[in-house]
Amino acid sequence: MKATSKQPNTKRFCELTLALLTWFAILLQLYLTESSFLNFLSYFTILSNVLVAVCLTFSSLLPTTTFGNYFSSIKVRSAIALYIFIVGLVYNFVLRGIWEPKGWQLVVDNLLHVIVPMLYVLYWLIFIPKGVLKWKDGIVWAYFPLAYLIYSLIRGYFIGWYPYPFLDVSKIGYQKVFINSGFMVIAFVLVGLLLIGISKSFKRKGTF
To answer: Quick check: pTM over 0.85?
Structure first.
């Protein structure tokens, strides 16, 4: 896709709109949650949506600051695309059937797990320059979810609470949790490599 004079303004408008929508979803979920604030921040869904909101806020409003430069990095924005895509993938194919949210919880549930992931990946496809990612980036991107899994298991060991059923040692045991964790890390690596492949493909075709 060839750049036009209108594209920077369009990009900034999309960033601001999605940032506001994501902040709204996060704050609404915080208002609705009955658990502690630390438990709230211990969900990968929340962390990934916060990354989306912070990234878009800084890159659109404060692009020349230290954080603005960091979150304007193609590699960082691509990593966030990976994390939020996995959030949508896992929730809709693994977790959606385990509960039935109602009212505002249903609204925020779909915002965090469907709308924001879909719109951010679309934003990545349209506005983020392609062809600069390297295959090794797919490995580096997996460090964050791996650290998250380790944190969740250590914290869960001490307080007896786990954010997701597939990490709940008290119910399924360490063997299944380690197997699930291994599959999750592999999924992050494979999907990350897929995003890199898409980026390289668009670059070769001269699109986006």
So the answer is: yes
